[in-house]
């Protein structure tokens, strides 16, 4: 079968012929319906050098945002039906530490023994006709579209996790939320906030078209640049924002987050931008009791919940599809910054 593989450090991926995988005990082979190309894949093949992360070292098949149909069911697997559609929870931990026990494999304490981070992250992923995954990592889709579901596996789950942890800040009338950065994750963050809270949603970005998209989903928008923080604060009645989500995580966006959060508010740095910020909250000045946290991806139960939002019709992920043969073009476009929304590779149209 064909697969898009990360073959060496700082080397553009290759479309190669590999053996079709088989399901070991507790595993399932999926016929891949959709596999999202992610900016973190670009970081892996473009920026990683030996030692950056030994758990995500070449070689492996890319693709950690995967949905497909169960094709081969391994020994000891119950409750998975051949031909049914599933979305894959990408992180794979040891399964028995205190984080894995609650489906939070992202923070597995035994990750070094596991030997990889997850599907398409050190272990073969879904940029192929077939992928083998632990049965535990499968979330049933029912009638939901596997292509849309794959777009949620990371780009939806990551904001969903951050938003869920911030709900205590938003569960009151008159609350406000700010989304900084309106790429795939940011636009989904706006929709998730709309579906789950009554907060006034403010969204900010440099790009005009991204602002217009966010408005379609019910956000008030403020462009980046001159007067940005003042305008955002004005939209909160001068109080500052209750829950800020920085989907970018670079110096200037972190600073915008810190300057706009209100007393008792919460800043979540969701984006994995490389640059930090020197900004400090000043003593004897608001915001008192504001908190700053960073999050990474999300949990297995949360992916299950997020699929319920998709099934209810509350989420409209933005994406463009490509065939597996066009997959390298998709990565090249991602590398060039020419992709808006998600680039989703569709290796198989149907089961
Ligand atoms: Zn991703
Ligand atoms: Zn674990």
Structure description:
Strand 17 (319-323), helix 10 (327-335) and strand 18 form a beta-alpha-beta unit. The strands form four sheets. Strands 3, 5, 6, 9, 10, 17 and 18 form a seven-stranded mixed beta sheet that branches. A six-stranded parallel beta sheet has the order 13-12-11-14-15-16, with helices on both faces. The two termini are 15 Å apart. The model has no long low-confidence stretch (mean pLDDT 95). It has helices at 39-47, 111-114, 146-152, 157-170, 184-196, 208-216, 228-235, 251-260, 300-311, 327-335, and strands at residues 2-6, 14-17, 27-37, 60-61, 66-73, 85-88, 118-119, 122-123, 130-134, 138-140, 176-180, 200-205, 220-223, 241-246, 261-269, 291-294, 319-323, 342-346. It has 351 residues and is of the alpha/beta class. The longest helix is centred in the middle third of the chain and has 14 residues, at 157-170. The chain has ten helices and 18 strands. The chain folds into two domains: 2-154 and 298-346, Alpha-Beta Complex (Quinone Oxidoreductase, Chain A, domain 1), CATH 3.90.180; 158-294, NAD(P)-binding Rossmann-like Domain (Rossmann fold). Helix 4 (157-170) crosses helix 5. It is globular and about 60 Å long. The structure holds zinc ion (2 copies). One zinc ion binds at residues 93-94, 97, 99-100, 108-110. It comes from Corynebacterium wankanglinii. It holds the Pfam family ADH_zinc_N. Belongs to the zinc-containing alcohol dehydrogenase family. Keywords: Metal-binding, Oxidoreductase, Zinc. This is NAD(P)-dependent alcohol dehydrogenase.
């Amino acid at each position: 079968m064909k697969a898009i593989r990360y073959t060496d450090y700082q080397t553009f991926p290759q479309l190669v012929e590999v053996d079709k995988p088989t399901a070991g005990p507790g595993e399932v082979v999926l016929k891949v319906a959709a596999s999202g190309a992610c900016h973190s894949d670009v970081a892996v093949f473009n920026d990683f050098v030996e030692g950056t992360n030994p758990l995500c070292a070449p070689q492996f098949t890319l693709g950690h945002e995967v949905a497909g149909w169960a094709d081969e069911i391994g020994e000891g697997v119950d409750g998975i039906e051949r031909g049914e559609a599933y979305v894959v929870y990408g992180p794979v931990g040891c399964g028995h530490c205190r984080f894995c026990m609650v489906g939070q494999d992202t923070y597995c304490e035994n990750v070094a023994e596991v030997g990889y981070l997850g599907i398409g992250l050190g272990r073969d992923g879904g940029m192929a006709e077939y992928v083998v995954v632990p049965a535990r990592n499968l979330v049933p889709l029912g009638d939901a579209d596997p292509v849309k579901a794959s777009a949620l596996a990371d780009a939806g789950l990551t904001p969903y996790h951050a938003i869920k942890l911030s709900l205590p800040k938003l569960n009151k009338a008159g609350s406000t939320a700010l989304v900084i950065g309106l790429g795939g994750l940011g636009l989904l963050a706006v929709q998730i906030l709309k579906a789950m809270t009554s907060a006034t949603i403010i969204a900010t970005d440099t790009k005009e078209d991204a602002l217009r998209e966010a408005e379609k989903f019910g956000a008030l928008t403020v462009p980046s640049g001159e007067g940005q923080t003042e305008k955002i604060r004005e939209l909160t009645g001068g109080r500052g924002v209750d829950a800020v989500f920085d989907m970018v995580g670079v110096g200037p966006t972190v600073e915008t987050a810190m300057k706009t959060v209100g007393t008792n508010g919460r800043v979540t740095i969701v984006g994995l931008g490389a640059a930090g910020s020197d900004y400090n909250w000043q003593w004897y000045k608001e915001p008192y009791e504001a908190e700053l946290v960073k999050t990474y991806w999300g949990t297995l139960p949360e992916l299950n919940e997020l699929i319920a939002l998709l099934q209810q019709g509350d989420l409209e992920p933005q994406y463009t599809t490509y065939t597996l043969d066009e997959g390298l073009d998709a990565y090249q476009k991602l590398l060039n910054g020419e992709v808006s929304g998600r680039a989703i590779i569709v290796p198989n149209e149907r089961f």
